[in-house]
């Protein structure tokens, strides 16, 4: 290994797969390689949809063993990030009380109205800045009161904090992920105590808050033995919400006025701000104020994302995606579009039929082939990206000159080009594994190898392959497609 270069393991868990990546970081270099990838398959049991968190943890251990093999058994640190809002409950002995409930489970249907009866939606947004989504942790906690499980709970750990606890034996609540619970005040960056009190949420269930870069313990001896790692191996708190880590890996130039789109199962589109936007207009537009690194706010909108295409591909028996995208590129643009933020597409199953039905109800041509359905999805995602980027600029009074697109969608050249066309702005695509890169760089930063957020981004801009997409034509046809959706 080169002098001054250290190896870090990023545990990066997505809604459909998990991976352990090894980042080799030096003062002027960052290289990322995949040590191990494993499926994340939720399980439907009689009581509902659950995460198989034990299988995930086994995948993490296998991944750390593979990561150690990449670097002679020595890691400088480990960091864990995952999707947001979901959690596990522990009893007084620290044992897990059942598999965590999946955010797509139906238990939160109709729950938001019960919450708003105690704290009206406008007041809740003004206090927490979090957009309405039926699966927010706050609504999950409210739904759980009707079950027996919470009575035995003494601790609540969000998913990355739960895995960190199993790795280290130490408990904490990382702030960027905690901000998605709808129980954090984005101005104080602390708990929204008034909201919790009015809604009867016991904040004592949560472990103390941690910030990205804080120490989170060291790997337990049993973990070292199982992974063949040479100890001690520290675990570092990172932006444990994967979007926080991904935004930290935006390769923006100094002073660049940018919007970002973090793509994957979800698309998260918005701006990085210094302060939250808590206006009623922002709430009505369903923008959220999640916390990021260095006092920043991730002002964004959740869009259903490539979930729509993933579910169609699954329903079609996993056809070759490359062929499907090439065929979709030949389909006329904007023939049919759907609202990619519609809750009607949240649950799994029968996605091609549900998209066809949405087109029929809207009086648009119904996609008849797989290519037409795929083009409908990608046009709809690009349209949703456009709406989010334009509205974020207006609501935050922050103009932008370029859109940075990171995550799995960077592999989809058609989606990248359509997003540039729809936004009327250049799109810079890269890095693909942004969450893992952000995870690794926060660890390296905590150990003094890289500087602040701006320095991280300069390093990424120098070292990561980036592709620039220039918008084609004017945005008139996209405005017309927006009007069709608005007229539904």
List the SSEs and their pairings.
Blueprint: E1 6-13, E2 17-26, E3 29-39, E4 43-45, E5 48-50, H1 53-70, E6 77-81, E7 87-90, H2 111-118, H3 121-128, H4 137-144, E8 155-158, H5 159-168, E9 173-174, H6 175-178, E10 184-185, E11 190-191, H7 193-199, E12 209-210, E13 215-218, H8 221-227, E14 234-236, H9 242-248, E15 258-263, E16 267-273, H10 280-284, E17 288-291, E18 297-303, H11 307-315, H12 321-329, H13 351-361, H14 370-396, E19 402-407, H15 413-423, E20 427-429, H16 434-446, H17 453-463, E21 467-469, H18 476-486
Parallel strand pairs: 1-6, 9-12, 15-19, 19-20
Antiparallel strand pairs: 1-2, 2-3, 4-5, 7-8, 10-11, 13-14, 15-16, 16-18, 17-18, 20-21
Helix pairs in contact: 2-4, 9-16, 12-14, 14-15
Describe the structure.
The protein has 18 helices and 21 strands. It has 488 residues and is of the alpha+beta class. The strands form 7 sheets. It has a 7-stranded mixed beta sheet with strand order 17-18-16-15-19-20-21, sandwiched between helices. Strands 3-2-1-6 form a 4-stranded mixed beta sheet. α14 (370-396) crosses α15 (413-423). The radius of gyration is 22 Å and the shape is globular.
Task: Give a brief description.
With 488 residues, this protein is of the alpha+beta class. It is 38% helix and 20% strand.
